[in-house]
């Protein structure tokens, strides 16, 4: 049997056909057209899934279920997207709508950060672990929690696991959520870009040269990579900035480890592309700071390994009996 | 049928006989004698339990199981206290030892903060909720987490839920765990006492009068109550101090709500004795700050209601099929 995982993003719809070991046999994608009516988007999702079935010469009966990963607040039990900022879904019955266009027996839906964490736990950085926390460093800071092989996304409602919206610096930098000092305001790619720009502005005013300016010219803009690149070339201002950045990230990561004691905590999202330059100093800090002193019981910190496929794979795993929510 | 809950504390052993609705029918206690060999302490626990059975004219067959709540790191599956600072247990097989002195069919053990949270969820402040977080403000800041009616205490090892050891002020006040700026360093009774003493020292140096000094004389010392009492009498320095204290506590509480979205978050421990003076401003802050905007889905913040009985009741509930860990 196969399963189909659909990663509905703000820019693209990516659909993958997975085997029972969650290997992607084939995948296909198309622009989301996020400003369209949600029903049109879902219709395209179903058309892409059918195309994938056809071109792999299998039949609908060979597909056990379809899983959908979407941004926003999701109620997986009801099959409803409660709220989605980019794709303009509000209390939208995505499962029911999808089945109108593709009558498979079972369709599941989950928040994309949660699905990605499940994918990482099953076949990514956490392969073989039934407990994993994934922190995604992108536009914001996302979180996904897997406990006992299942997604945990909050008790009263399913918009929990907002790991980016935990304050690590009371009274600190303004966060989009209204509070000050959230992890997201220090550790997202957006925050790192802003902090780099602030530093460059300060250096410019003082007339201090720095490789940060060279990197900016080379890239054509300031990004989350600018300071990492300048630091790798030995710039002292960039190095201090990256050390601070990793220090704040370590506070958030250590907090989550002290709360959850997962087997593995993986870092995904754009900034995780820095690989060892990010993870080595991060793991050093976290290993020193975490509450558990027993080295055999410490949480491993690693880079997420599934990259852009995490959403597809996590979605394709949503119907696994062992990973399904109660 | 009855169950017996034993709350093993650093000072006293408290044993309660509970009915199936978790009402305490009778309880008994004796000094722990914490410096003795652990086996002697367990022998006394069994003797107290037997005394309770005898004086209630029931037989051992009427007792479904015994539950033990103990401080320290516990492995409930193995029935072992891995480490306990005050009672000097180290990898101590408490369940096996207890059954040597009282051969009941089933004996369970849990960390006391976890047991208390289970008690609060079942019959205390969370009566009827299957998700609850309890934060205990005492010598330290303890945490207990109940998800789906079961205790969650970490995945890799069972020393998770260290909610007090999450940094809310990066680089802030020194914590006993080695990090700086943990919730415990701002919100424990010990921290509040220290912060009050620091403020009084500052006022004294400047020769500024304050009701804090009157309260100190009345109590004979500075405690976590001093500033609350002076604030209630209108002292502006005490009021500002309490506002700050509740502000920091609110950061930690809101963080936990954004992660777990529990139905209820209850505050226990000595400082919770301040009741409405603590909870009203705390709930106001938390309600404003939490990520969920939907008022129907917001977490309720409340004072724990079982007081010193939470440990006994939680221990007496450990064998409930629905609350037992996998």
Record the SSE blueprint.
The structure is a homodimer of 326-residue chains.
Chain A (H helix, E strand, L loop, with lengths): L1 E7 L3 E7 L5 E8 L6 H18 L7 E8 L2 E3 L4 E5 L4 E4 L1 H8 L5 E5 H12 L8 E6 L3 E7 L2 E2 L32 H4 L1 H18 L4 H9 L4 H9 L3 H25 L3 E5 L7 H14 L10 E4 L6 H7 L10
Parallel strand pairs in A: 1-4, 4-8, 9-12, 12-13
Antiparallel strand pairs in A: 1-2, 2-3, 5-6, 6-7, 9-10, 10-11
Helix pairs in contact in A: 1-2, 3-10, 5-7, 5-8, 6-7, 7-8, 8-9
In a few lines, what is going on in this structure?
The structure is a homodimer of 326-residue chains. Chain A is of the alpha/beta class and 326 residues long. Chain A is built from ten helices and 13 strands.
Cross-sheet strand order for the largest sheet of chain A: 3-2-1-4-8
Overall structural class of chain A, as computed from helix and strand content, comes to alpha/beta
- What is the gyration radius of chain A calculated from CA atoms? 21 Å
| β-strand amount of chain A | 15-25%
On the 0-100 scale, what is the average pLDDT of chain A? 93
How would you sum up the major sheet of chain A? 5 strands, mixed
* Number of beta-strand segments of chain A: 13
Give the helix tally of chain A.
10
């Amino acid at each position: 049997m196969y399963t189909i995982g659909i990663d509905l993003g703000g820019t693209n719809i990516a659909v993958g056909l997975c085997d029972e070991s969650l290997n992607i046999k084939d995948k296909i994608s198309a622009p989301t057209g996020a400003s369209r009516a949600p029903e049109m988007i879902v219709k395209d999702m179903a058309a892409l899934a059918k195309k994938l079935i056809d071109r792999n010469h299998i039949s609908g009966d060979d597909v056990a279920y379809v899983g959908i990963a979407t941004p926003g607040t999701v109620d997986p039990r009801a099959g409803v997207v409660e709220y989605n900022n980019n794709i303009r879904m509000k209390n939208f019955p995505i499962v029911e709508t999808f089945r109108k266009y593709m009558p498979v027996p079972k369709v599941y839906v989950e928040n994309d950060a949660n699905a990605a964490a499940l994918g990482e736990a099953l076949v990514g950085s956490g392969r073989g672990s039934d407990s994993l926390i994934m922190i995604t460093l992108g536009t914001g800071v996302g979180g996904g929690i897997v406990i006992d092989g299942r997604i945990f996304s909050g008790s009263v409602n399913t918009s929990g696991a907002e790991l980016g919206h935990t304050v690590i610096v009371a009274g600190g930098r303004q966060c989009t959520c209204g509070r000050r000092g959230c992890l997201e305001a220090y550790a997202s790619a957006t925050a790192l870009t802003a902090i780099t720009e602030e530093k460059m502005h300060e250096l410019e005013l003082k007339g201090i040269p720095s490789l940060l300016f060279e990197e900016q010219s080379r890239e054509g803009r300031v990004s989350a990579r600018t300071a990492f690149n300048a630091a790798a070339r030995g710039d002292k201002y960039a190095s201090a900035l990256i050390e601070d950045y990793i220090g704040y990230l370590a506070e958030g990561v250590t907090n989550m480890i002290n709360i959850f004691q997962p087997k593995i905590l993986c870092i995904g999202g754009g900034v995780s592309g820095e690989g060892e330059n990010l993870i080595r100093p991060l793991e050093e800090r976290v290993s020193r700071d975490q509450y558990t002193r027993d080295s055999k019981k410490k949480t491993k910190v690693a880079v997420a390994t599934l990259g852009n496929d995490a959403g597809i794979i996590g979605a394709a795993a949503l119907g696994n009996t062992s990973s399904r929510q109660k």
